[in-house]
Each structure stands twice: as C-alpha cells, then as structure tokens.
Amino acid sequence: MPLTSVKKNGKRRAGAPDTPAIQSLDRGLQILEAVGKSPEPVSLGQLAAMLGIDRSSAFRLAKTLKRRGFLTTPSAGRDYVLGSSVWRLSRQYDWSKMLARVAHEPLKTLAAQTHETAHLAVREGRKALFIDHVTTSHVISISGQTGELVPLYCTSHGKALLIDFEEQDLVDLLGPKPLKVYTKNTIQSIRSLAAECTSLREKGFATDESEYLEGVRCLAAPIRDRDGQVIASIGISAPAARFPREREREFAGLVVAVAAEIGELVGSLED
C-alpha cells in the first residue's frame, strides 16, 4: 500500500509543527488519514515508514489512538483500522447536518414571529454548538454565528440542553471547580445551576438574563425526540431593551411550540 513518507534528515519541512506536543498531534492525524484512506489494515511498519520515525514511536502513537477508540486491530490482529470513535464523530456530524435541514424552516418561522435572531444548537461536550441561525432586519441584532460554541451553564441554549440534568450529572460534566464568570449575573456554582435546572423543568424553557453577554436576553427550549430525550435546543436572542420581561410569556409560547414541531419532524424521520 503506498503511503506518503516524511523526510528523515531531521530538518523540519515547511509548515510542520515546531513543538513536541503539536508534532505528536500532527503525526496522530496523519495516522488517522492514512488508515482511513487505506483499503486494507495498515501495519505498524507502514505507519513508521510514513511518518519517518522508528517503530517504537509509531507504536506509542497508535497505542494512544487505540486507547481512545480512534484505531482498532480487528480479530486480534496487529494491523490497524479506524475505530468506533471515528464513526461516532462522523455520525454526530451527519446528525447535526440532518437536524439543521429539518429545523431550518421552523427556525425561519420563529425568527419571523418574534422579529429576533433565532438559533438552533446541540451539545458539544461542555459547550453548546450553534448549528444554524436566522437573523432579522433589525439594525441592532444578536447574531451568534453557526459553528460558534458557547458555555452551557450561562446561556439559554446551554441550560435548555441541560434541563434534565441532576446535580451529580452536572458535576460529572462540568467538574467541581467554580464556574467562569462572564457578567455579574453569571451562575457561579453547580448547586445553583442544579436548582435552576429543577425550576426550568417545571417551566419547559430556559432564559439567559445577561448572564453571558451584558445587555442581552435570550430564551430557549429543549427539542426532544420521541423518547423524551433532549437532542437539541432552539431559541431567540435580543438586546434586553427589546426583550422586556413582560414579553417572556409570549416569546416562550412561540419557542416551545416550534421546539415541539421540530421534535415531531425528527420523530417522523425515525419511522
């Protein structure tokens, strides 16, 4: 199997990493690319030749990738193929794209109904990831971009995604350390966040009272699959002056209704 090799003369090629940690990451990514492109399992010797390193160094890299599930050796063999972690990542990417397609029209409807920017988000580790958004014609609008990551604990989307979490679940996800403070309204402890999640479950939606960005109010609701599991969130963001508390009930009704609509659309795809 032809694999691209790296020069062994000790000179760093143009654009190559210049620190050991980054070099190891670069080599690990090269391994994944090579194994992914190969129609056959790839041997340790082939990996070492491709990277221009000795077999023991190649083995340590492959062992780390195998431990994390990115490589595996089928049937107790010694050669490598891509592992389950790669497939999980690819499914998550495909799932997010599918969800964005299904939810785009309801998202546009929500933006038109509220005249405010509407976002669709999924959980990505300890963050909420915006996978789609629709802006409005306001001169001043809140336009978080698709692909942007925001904290879970101090944004309406994040709290909607965490709405079913109990205190221990939150500790397991976010860790026991104090939470980073962004504004004077930011939640600062897991205990406070757990108490808010309990309250949010009763309301069915989450708010952000200028907890992440000063002068910005947001409202989001969880999107659930047919089993009741939270799979995403949808919501709106606006300058606080344009989103007084008196409008919370009105906006919440619209957001919750659109979240339910998207949940039904996703459920229909599972039939």
Automatic annotation (TrEMBL):
Pfam families: HTH_IclR, IclR_C. Transmembrane segments: none annotated. InterPro entries: GAF-like_dom_sf, HTH_MetabolicPath_Reg, Tscrpt_reg_IclR_C, Tscrpt_reg_IclR_N, WH-like_DNA-bd_sf, WH_DNA-bd_sf. Keywords: DNA-binding, Transcription, Transcription regulation. GO terms for molecular function: DNA binding; DNA-binding transcription factor activity. This is Transcriptional regulator, IclR family. Residues 22-84 form the HTH iclR-type domain. SUPFAM superfamilies: GAF domain-like, Winged helix' DNA-binding domain. GO terms for biological process: negative regulation of DNA-templated transcription. Residues 1-20 are annotated as: Disordered. Residues 85-268 form the IclR-ED domain. PANTHER family: HELIX-TURN-HELIX TRANSCRIPTIONAL REGULATOR, ICLR FAMILY (PTHR30136), HTH-TYPE TRANSCRIPTIONAL REPRESSOR ALLR (PTHR30136:SF24). The keyword Ribosomal protein does not apply.
